[in-house]
Structures are given as structure tokens and as C-alpha cells.
Amino acid sequence: MGNVNVNIDGKKLRVREGVTILEAAEANGIKIPTLCHIKDQVPTGICRVCVVELERSRTLVGSCHTPVSEGMVIHTHSPKVTAVRRVIVELMLTAHTGDCVNDTNAENCVLHNLASDYEVGAPRFNVKVPRFYPAEDSNPYVRRNLSKCILCRKCVRVCASIPGKNILSVGYRGFRSKIVAGFDEALLSEKCRDCGKCIEHCPTGALSAPVKV
Amino acid sequence: MTKETSSITSGRAELLPALKRELKKNGCLTREIMDTVAGRSGLPLNEIYGVATFYAYLPLAPLGQYVIKVCRCLPCDMKDAQAVIGGIKQELGIAPGETTADGKFSLELVNCIGACDQAPAMLINAKLYGNLTPQRIVEILKSY
Ligand code: SF4
Ligand code: FES
After folding, report:
1. What pLDDT, in 10s, does the model give residues A169-188?
2. Is residue B34 part of a domain?
3. A35 lines ligand 2 (CB under 6 A)
4. How far is CA A104 from the centre of its chain?
5. How many domains does chain B have?
């Protein structure tokens, strides 16, 4: 494959054909926020925070799953992009229940940091039934607090990429969607060991290393 | 594709037909049944559970003789499906997800049943009832 010419945020770049807009931007020092993206895995395009403005495209496009092509003119932080990202984060915060200060290392929460970078503030939307799940401390390797989960599915995908694992899936539907282990039960320690991959990838405080007492 | 991923892919393609067969045989999908399907298909239990809980048509527990499925999608909701659900609750004394003590009726809320033109709508087993009102509910249920 050859190279193509693209323009990202006014920078004229020559990048390898077939890479995504996100990869081209990152390789050239332009940062685009992501929540569901896992480097070198097939993109899923779930979270939408990576959207960018592509000239002559009717809609914003997800940069993590859109390959570059010749002549693209892309804006990664235009006012339109910023406004849309702000609403996307606001929607995610709406279903992200609970107090960040008490229960999570908020400074490690990518969503929390995005919310403060984009000055999102308290979400305007009301929910009929809050998405609340009691935190689960039974597993010695992973603490789960699914009220914080934004369903980015990274944990599902990294776990599935470990031979013989694949112990997480998405259960239920719509607003009730939830990451489930087994028959929607506590993470069993014989199945889940100490690899820590899901914790490393989780962009929120939903998965964390248990605090040793 | 590695051997593991290719068997998972074919297990996935086969999963819904397999679950439908089990449902026909057993009336619902219990944990034991899902464990058996998992063993046969090579898929993990969590994935089978995820698929089963996605579909309202794959029940996890035995249902009554007549299963009432009220649509809870937007058009029905806007045409006051809540009043319909309230009417059924009052008539049968069961909430969504429950079955009457005599095992005759189960009440479920489901996603779009394709009858938006007759909203609010519901199914009783395979029969469609549209343009529902709480009054009509009483008549319909009496006919069973
Ligand atoms: S638990 Fe974390 S990694 Fe898994 S889906 Fe939720 S937010 Fe994403
Ligand atoms: S990072 Fe692109 S859609 Fe989530």
C-alpha cells in the first residue's frame, strides 16, 4: 500500500494508506480522546468520543474506525466537534451513577478527566431508574463497581483476547445492559485470575484493583 | 484464524438455532440447559447468557400458559402503554416479569413487536391485539 495526503488541523501530512484517522493523528502528535479504542485491536466504534469533522462529510466520523483516504481535510477540535463531544460525555455521565470522590480514584477515570477538559458539568438528563449495582468485592484480583461502567466493552474484548478466557459478555438490553460474568454472577476466582488486563483497560472506576487491608 | 476463534465463530452462528431448539423442548432456558449448550458449542456461559437475556423471546424461567407481551417501545409508550400495563396488573394482580398463581398468564414487557400503527399493542402468545385501552384489556383477558 502506498501513501496518501491528508490535512489534519491544518497540518499537511503524508500517511500510510489504510491507517485510521486516529492513528494518523497520533503519529503526528495530534491527540484525539478515546474511550473504547484498544490499540491494535479491531475497532468497535462504540463510545463516539473520538469523532472528528471531515470536510464534505454530512456527519462527523469516528476517527478510530475511519481509514484515511487521499485529500481528506480533518478537524479534530473544531467548535462543532467540541460541542458534540461534550454532549456525548454528558450522556455517558447520566448513566454513570454515584459519587466519584468517595468511591473511585477519580484522577484515574478517563471519563471524569474528559468531563473536566470539556467542561461538561452536571448532566441535564433525568433517568427513570438510576443504573445502580452494588459494588462487588468478592474477587481477590478485581473489584467491580458496575454503577460506574459506561459499557465501552474493552474488558470484554481484552479478556476474550486471552487464550482460554473470554469470561465477560454484555447481558440484557438497552438501558439495562450490563457486563456479566457467567450466569450474571460474581467474578469467580477460579475463572478470573490476576492478569489485571481488564483493570488496565477500563476507562472508568468500574474495574479496579482491590484495596489490600 | 486460530482454531479457537474459528470454532467460536461457528458456535456463534449456531447459537440462536440451538437455543430455539432447547426452548421448544424445555419451555425455558435454565442454567443447566445453557451449560449444556456451552459445552457443545465451545462458547462460554457468559456469552450464551448475554444472548439469552437480550431477547425477550428466550425466557429464563417457565412461563404461564398464555404469555402477554406488551410493547414498551416509544410509539406504544406515547400512546399510553403504561395504562395498558396498569390495566393488566389490576386485572391479573401480576407485575411485568410475573406469572399468575394458577399458571395461566405471564406478563412481559418487550421491544417493538412491529405493530406501531396500532399502538398501544400487545401479543398474547402469537395473537396480536392493537389499539388497546384499559377497558378492552378486561374484555380480552376475560375471553381466555
Ligand atoms: S467495566 Fe470498564 S472496561 Fe468494562 S465495559 Fe465497563 S467501563 Fe468498559
Ligand atoms: S474511541 Fe472511537 S468510538 Fe470509541
Report:
1. 999 998 899 999 999 999 98
2. yes
3. yes
4. 17
5. 2
